[in-house]
């Protein structure tokens, strides 16, 4: 007997403004058991060095994801016909103690992995990606370090902040490399820009072998060129995809903690995410949506759309259902 | 074996910004079976004659109700210790066909009544109260017309709008009186104000015996005086309580379709609602919260608080749990 | 044959959100000829010393005045049955040259006076009241200085700003007294508050005989006490009424250039304005509504409501139409 | 004697923030008699399936159109020198009864057509285009079905919503095709995107022969390529142009009911509209501007600009005035 | 030679919108040396359990304090004539590590105390008051526990949150009592309200002897009655004054992390603060202004005004300058 | 001994949200003595013909410039290592008397020039550029007229407004040409668009020899093509750079007085500004940032970023520091 799949609430019956919002209007089982993909919120922003608020991200992305319909207008993929996808709620993480929070997040993702589901997370600030990566790493101990496709305006490979604080949203990928979770030679960062602390700001990252695509190169290459470069860097081994919403131009994603003007557009972002098809993705997230700084829900809508694009891209790797 | 009660999500474990919002963070059973009080959303604003948006009310009231804790700081009542209360979701109502919508709403409330639960609804515009009253009336055929405690800036007893439109948010109580559902001599309207279409605007209402407390009288009497007048008019027979958020001053409830400056305050509203204790309330609602016109969620927060006050007031009529 | 009166657009036919907004939805004749009361906008804010934007006031007050209906719910007065009232548009005033602007405003009001109509103006910053008073004074050369009822948080009787600038929104009533247009002994200022430049800030005003009711006294007296004091100071001779929207608390009138927290409420304001009935009012205005700083149109709605209260109060002095 | 043309209010005399706003600051005659082009508002949003508010569109587009000057900076066309253009106000349409509203809108447009004027309308939701098309069709009974140039993110050719509701803003062009008003082989839809209900979402539309230009193709072709395709599909027979503001990216048009991220830019939109010159346009509209969801008036400004571009494009087909 | 006092930037020379904002437009010396009162910001919100953002409080309160003039309109006090007052900037506190932050704040206040100045602080969340109290306590080792006048909607005497987190903005006064810094019998809390976690929510506080004035009692007593009660509880021994902006009604202070509707008004707050004159105040603060949730700067303006009221109240205890 | 340079506040020590905001977090010396580049605010908007508010520009640009770090991510230039740069505060200019204000601004810039520093100003409306140019001209009497690189949506070469007003933000460059300060043949205007008053709107400008790059040409040329054209027009003689923020698309710069949709993007703007390297720039400004119309600080952030780009571009012409 085939495993049952979950369907979003039917908008031809219940209007989009009605009902409790879950990610993509999907059911909300108590756990990830039986799921292929677990949509999960990580409402934590304790690693934020400037403007807070990403703790409110999961709720507003859920809210705006009410506007998502079932399928993709380009690929024709309807993920819910191929995979068991549901919203497993938010990880229980408290906002006061950062080190405890990292453990709570890791435990929450570990439970999803243990259930055999792929985590598709909504942050939270970018530090939340670190415990997600830790959990993924521990769940597949023999797999080796992961590759990373990072859409972002910042490299997030700084060493420490405000003296000796090692864990902030500006340091997760340095920590992950140090911990052996990520393979720096299979990291590509797309859209990096903004003023820098020092002329050699990205020296450490480049020395590790990280491929930084500054925004100028992104604009000059165009989505197709960027996609080719992603596939070249990542190859066929497993990778994680992290989408910091501040990679997108602030006019299209104003609700974020550290905006940098002059970013790529949502349209370019959608095309680049679609181009990830074919990668071996073992987890993904959308982070840094900060509703207190958002305008009219635009950033949360953008976040929900990117989440849907990621979901469809991953689902594209699974067989389509037979149609009569 | 005692019936199990429902508890809100524990804020000492899950922060208020986390998780899917339900009314008061309560569980969301699929039906009202086994409930004493069913919190229910009615996302419909098709009766609105000016600024729309109350269809988005239930979702935002749910969102802001995350700030509600378990008990009342004055009465000490914790409703969840006395009654089975839960969020049964939104009534399925489409936004296109007004007459069909009235039937859908009535059916949704009828199901709650059939389950033996008292409906505590969140609109939607004020027309949504009409089908709620119809369902309550049909559920208790021998009970006779209900009394009505109406907090509002408008009487909502007009006859018709835009030619021959009988069903708008300016007409529900005229219709309910005509249909024999409400006893006009046991209707009290509190906070009425604003410019009028005609010098004899409220002549029909007064001729029916409705007691109109204009805002000037509300301010002069104070909450205690208003409460006494409510009890005098309503007496001990069953009644319904409807709270139009536009009764409150627009500085405290800006997100509504027909704001009238110079209203009573939230503090006064809370005191008046508390004074309803002792009435035989068979249903209640909070209506006309229109999030597209809201500012910083203030109106939705006010609506959630009034909803909580109504819940505690009703619960106060039930025995407190024995404490060891 | 009786003179024809003007009626607002009928809201039972054209919804309030439809149509071009005029003050009170009234017709917009090309001039004040034949009018008893001319509603007129004065879109000028060149006298503003801090936050500008009152030039946009007339348009947004027109917009929000769409919510006004025909009559007053307390007095029962329907001004359009007693008087010919219409919206004569905005005075043509340019924003660049302050001294020229004062002349333009005076000329615009002079034309209204010449037509025999009473001007009921919407500013504009408070400096715009000065040329209105000049025009009124010249139109009735033998009348003597006017009294002034001023609702405000500031006395606006400073001498000069930024060196030798004599004409700003902080100086109009000093200039008007110096010019012999106002009788300082028949000026009452209601709601004065806020920090002061000097301990003897209001010494000049008090020395002239101006009656300053600080906000503390307003709150302690209540509307009835304030009304009595107004009548005592103004007496039966002609007066002008000027309502600076910043007299009202900023929570109810945030959109203004120089907000001062802790003001009187809109409800109190309405009652005080109603209490002006019986005064010999020869002109009035509502000023300092600054839409760029407004929130959700609340200040403009408050301004429109005060304008309507002023209109009804003036109309109350005219005979009611005979009813069959 | 040449027919007199209408001129916008002169901004060198009356500042843009002054005066009652009409479309393009044009005069507001009581009817379309003598006009070549009638600018008209259709304040109705009863066909909206998600976020309402387009009923407020005409007023805010009028407001922002105060920023439009007389002529076009690229073509040099000054429409008011070639054609009699004025603002005939809003069609009287009530918000409660959808079927009655469709009749009211059709009657309003029929009156414009009867006067010999071309309607250039501002909605309102997209359902309002259906009665406009009906009126145009009946006004020229022998003309045959019209072509349609549709800028939009949605095809709006769905069959029914929420059970059997045939008339929503998601269905107007299916109805118009069924009614024989539009020739599907001469329909081109530009900018279609967003998630879909089903993999074969647009199957019916394509089967009818509609040319759908998805956003990806729009971006790849560029404005020039799109213009060529428009002319190929539409040819030289009469057509209607409908511009749903949600075709534009939500960062430039956030105030709309069903935003879809990743759209074309305003700059691209302007170029595409200019490229319509040469088509035989017999009517046009701008729809789905929803001010309650707008941010800083940006969407209304964009709508006003597109309206001006449409006006200039149509006027370009008429002879320029002789210059001395 | 008399010590020089500092004067705010002269608004008759430099407009209020010009220049870098400091608290009250005062000079910004590098340290508190020579000051009587040091205005100081504490930009930290790591103790926030719900909506963050109070870290941005000091900057926006500085910004809005540009509207403060030199003196008090009721008392006539001009603090800058009696005391050396200046803005010593923000304490350097990082946002990542809560325990380190508490030490940083304490060190910053200790430096002010060591310079002999009284700290008048702007938070930050309410947890920031704990290290301020610690520094004050250590600076005067023999003084004994302080009294506390607390304007607030919450008691902030909970024990722990989210498991075992002892330090949050809901616990500072429990910690301070445990640490012997505050004398619970000389604590008065004014304006407490909102739903509660448990029926015995405030049992611990009351058992310690804290005097809780719930909002109902505040409203019934009025400012004069509250002032009397404050003096009765506090007496003549040293005390600290802490003003949580959420004590004020959210319509007047929406920008805060945990709003509770139904609060006292700004006007009432001003009167109550003025009534503190005569107490032996050794420090004070305004906390929980959260700009990301603020509306039009209203909460920051309210915070700046309360800060000014506190400053004038303290200054009232010092001799006025001799006037020639 | 080398002259000391100024460094921005260290963000690894003091978070970006802390401290008083100055331009780029630089020190704020009392004068320009010893500076190479003086960042200076000009808070004046008296030349504005439509929506005011640019007087608030310097403060908010300072605020958002807290997000700027030390160096440029493309050029690697760290201006503070090459030049003495500081924030000299705002020019003291009153808002009431336009002609006096022009003199005040000129005097303020003259002082900077006299100190030997290059002025890098933040307006204010575009009229403020005229007195800046006058001061620059007088400071180097033998230099001859300057070239001008103008990013803008308007040519600002109109003759007069509202009758005979010669000095508005629509006329500065006509005046500067007439006064012999600018060489019209070395003026290039980039991004001009929007509807026009007359078909020959720019006839005078073109007759003078000004090179107008309409937005269509800007988009077609791309940044590289525009840069080439700039260098062709300006050549190697001294020039001024003025960046009107309304040149950028309103989705990225909504907070401005006269928005024109369809502009160039921030990314394009950044590239064009970088391409100015090599020009002999003797002063520059960013104008028309109007915070009351801004959304979420986006325009001020864009303005701060352009200011930083200008600073880095100018600094690129100076030798880099020797690195050990």
From TrEMBL, chains A, B, C, D, E, F:
Belongs to the arginase family. Agmatinase subfamily. The keyword NAD does not apply. It is an enzyme of class 3 (hydrolase). This is Agmatinase. The lineage of its organism: Bacteria, Pseudomonadati, Pseudomonadota, Alphaproteobacteria, Rhodobacterales. It comes from Pseudogemmobacter faecipullorum. InterPro entries: Agmatinase-rel, Ureohydrolase, Ureohydrolase_dom_sf, Ureohydrolase_Mn_BS. The keyword Metal-binding applies. It comes from the Bacteria. One of its GO terms (molecular function) is agmatinase activity. Its EC number is 3.5.3.11. NCBIfam families: agmatinase (TIGR01230). It holds the Pfam family Arginase. Keywords: Hydrolase, Metal-binding.
